[in-house]
Amino acid sequence: MSDITTNGHIAHPVGVGTGLALIPRATEKQSLKDFKSDQEVRWCPGCGDYAILAAVQSFLPELGLKRENIVFVSGIGCSSRFPYYLNTYGFHSIHGRAPAIATGLAASRPDLSVWVITGDGDALSIGGNHLIHALRRNVNLNILLFNNRIYGLTKGQYSPTSEVGKITKSTPMGSLDKPFNPISLALGAEAGFVARTLDSDRKHLQSVLREAAAHRGTSLVEIYQNCNIFNDGAFDALKDPGLRDDITLRLEHGQPIASASKAVRRGAGGRIEVVDRASVPEGEILVHDAHDPDPSAAFALSRLDEPAFEHVPIGIFRSVDRPAYDTLMSKQVHEAVSDQGAGDLDQLLRGGDTWRVG
Amino acid sequence: MTKQVQQLDRVIIRFAGDSGDGMQLTGDRFTAETAQFGNDLSTLPNFPAEIRAPAGTLPGVSSFQLHFADHDILTPGDAPNVLVAMNPAALKANIGDLPRGADVIVNTDEFTKRNLQKVGYAASPVDDGSLGEWRVHAVPLTSLTVKALEGFEVSKKDAERSKNMFALGLLSWLYHRPTEGTIKFLERKFAKKPDIAKANIAAFQAGWNYGETTESFSVSYEIKPATLAPGLYRNISGNQALAYGLIAASVRSRLPLFLGSYPITPASDILHELSKHKRFGIRTFQAEDEIAGVGAALGAAFGGALGVTTTSGPGVALKAETVGLAVATELPLLVVDVQRAGPSTGMPTKTEQTDLLMAMYGRNGESPVPIVAPATPSDCFHAAIEAARLAVKYRTPVMLLSDGYLANGSEPWRLPDADDLPDLSVEFAVEPNGEDGETYLPFKRDPQTLARPWAVPGTPGLEHRIGGIEKADGTGNISYDPNNHDMMVRLRQAKIDGIAQDIPPLEVDDPDGDARLLVLGWGSTYGPIAAAVRRVRRSGVKVAHAHFRHLNPLPANTGEVLRAYDKVLLPEINLGQLALLLRARFLVDVISYNRVRGLPFKAEELAGVIQDVIEQ
Ligand code: SF4
Question: Which Gene Ontology BP terms does the record give (chain B) (predicted)?
């Protein structure tokens, strides 16, 4: 049996490539219109999801992939309605399980560009196990985590990224549990590509998506997303023209990490710390190395948004290549075929100790 | 010394020892020799859930029972004619199952004061006359083995460990088994340790020679080959047959097999087996949990693979939500449940038929799924193909209910030709199916099967979205319309119900056509029930027998068959799950017989039940 991929699509990947190398390219130029589905978008007016959807729709043509080879898989939550609004293949699944479903799809079809749309509750509460295992396993997936720090679809309970003391319907006296920092979590799970961006900054959002798509393996992009109904203004500090340039620490590979007024440097004992920009000579500002195989600097950077929103790193924390699971899996299949020959059913059945009667 | 040779028509042997004594291997080898020789056979391994329970204790006893005969047989046998007990614990745990006059071979070397104490024997039963009912052969197996291996390049410990091969040699002599297969097997198994291979082979041969020369055994036995249907045979266990069935389904459907699975007793061997056959284009994915296993399988199915997940009851409980998603999205998916004793962890290595109602109803909403259950170990092959056939043809998850007894039991299997297996080819949707010739309607159904089209990503022009939210018939768009929901609920049910027209009718074995009692069964109870029916028929009693392979939907003639008999008896290894369904559906007063001991039924027990029901 030679047709080990489906439907006539031959995909024989070997070795590490870019995230898009195995995906068939479109022959005609695409536009935003090609990626809009005919479904009416049903988020609350003003929801940050609109901005993300518009950014993704206008970004996809740039990839130049055959539209039919793009799949969006989501879980449950407001953000998980996303696939309905894109004219690609889509699978709106169940709460927390999108990474698992996408893993089976991407591992068996390396010719697809698979995107997971998830939220903070979906990815970090009910689906936490699938998320960390997807990240360590490194299947070729792009996971977009819309973090609004609240449960929207169930009408406003605190989420695993809500700040301690959050007053919500389920926590009238304040929430008690410490939130996850999705970036720290992803780095701890050995993710090869980890980034953070903002719903309202289309240019930055698209630049991060571009890098995520090009990365072969699992990429995790945390997108700060405003839920104007249940957690309005959660990220205002990063959007306020008077504040944002001071708060935002842009992470750009090879560039010093600094905001208008603050800078990052290695302090005593090698600790990474934020100090007044004026207090450090330019040459001592920490230069960002997204490709550092050692994740400890990236992890230290991910801790800089504590205390909350005094200074927030935005950008690509880590982008490191390692072999993707689906590539390795395909390789084993191809090795088995080339070493032993394609499987023969009669030969298999007759493979044990046999005897003839009559 | 020439010894007497006696002819027998059948024998049941049980090898029993400590988990570390290699009893499963010994049983497997004796089975292979017996299969080679041409007897019909059936096996029943029985082992503790613990990998190594404390040595010499009752919980640590592992056993392997083999029934072989010169005619066709249906079960691993009720009671052993021969027990090989490697230590006092093995004797104590098994002696109660032996009929008077049975042979007991005990390894006296292990009957030390300490070992006797461990299981509460005050004195050795071999010496105190308490085994008077049985023919006891006291054999110092360990020391004989060590002696036979003097001069070999092995440690004393390795020499002692070969005692199971000595026992195998002795039994092989006793029942005239061929030996070349075992010698070749040992050479292969220990190819990297030639000294160990030599020692094991020498122990095996010493056991044979011991039988020939000792006075403890004055008779040896011959059991002629059985007259089975002509063909090429091999011996196969249920889990292996099931794995092969999945591979065959992949080959015959030309869909690449994707297995998403999480290790669980007693299903893991299917994962192990499939992992070995990547040359068939198989991808096996050991997931982070049961949910991810089935999720990945469903994702692969969306991409056009034959998506399979294998598990046991606790895993099915975890997978329920994803199976519901497969019902809603109408994608093919195979869920293999190798049932074990529950609830909860229950008894992982023991068998049961207690997941039928979970398979049937264990999901939220109205979410019908077809259910198929194999009858014997080799039937797992064909049942897997049938389950795959239904899944891909009807675009539905299918539950395949095997169990621990089938999984680990084995029997001779007449090998089919690959070309004779059903053709499961699938036609993917490749072009728009809307009236306008441009739109694709992912939920436009085939009028015959009610199955929806299967358009896989990569197909241009058929981009569409599916999901767990209720969708409009035809377009598949999200719909909260009350009437649409009612219609979709009924359509999904009608699709599954319609399968009744696509499966064979329930066949009744009623030789004279005038029995008043019908005995029913499903799944792994086939062997014991059929054997019991044979027994009572031999005494002149008339009884009909029918066995369900499809549990949902039931064969179209089920009601008619049930109503044709005065009495219907249904033995199940649960508290009456199929009986509940049959009573509800057909208003027939099914008489249940239920035992839930983690063990298969015995033919004798069921023969008694049949007699009682007839006499009532
Ligand atoms: S509840 Fe919040 S997240 Fe959900 S759609 Fe409305 S604004 Fe957006």
Answer: response to oxidative stress
